[in-house]
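The protein record now logged underneath.
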Amino acid sequence: VQLQASGGGSVQAGGSLRISCTASGRHFSNYLTGWFRQAPGKEREFVAAINSKRATVYVDSVKGRFTTSRDNAKNTLYLQMNSLKPEDTAVYYCAKPSGTSWGYWGQGTLVTVSS
């Protein structure tokens, strides 16, 4: 499985951005996918995940602002980010589990939010 994230960019605080992650291979619709981010000088943190039944979970800091979704026909995962804050600035990664860990990672896309 290869994951390719795209759509990052610069936006002002309060703005919106949608990033995407396209997966290669088969059975995309069957597996859990997730979003993580890593801000400068900080550890990578979990942001959101969506499973095969489209059930979602979010870290508290983005609840009500971010929405993850998937288009199985396009093998694509989305993260819609609204009401962005400067503290959302980070490199965002998509990931897929391998066994009991998040074993497959995309290359990351940079989101910069200016105040």
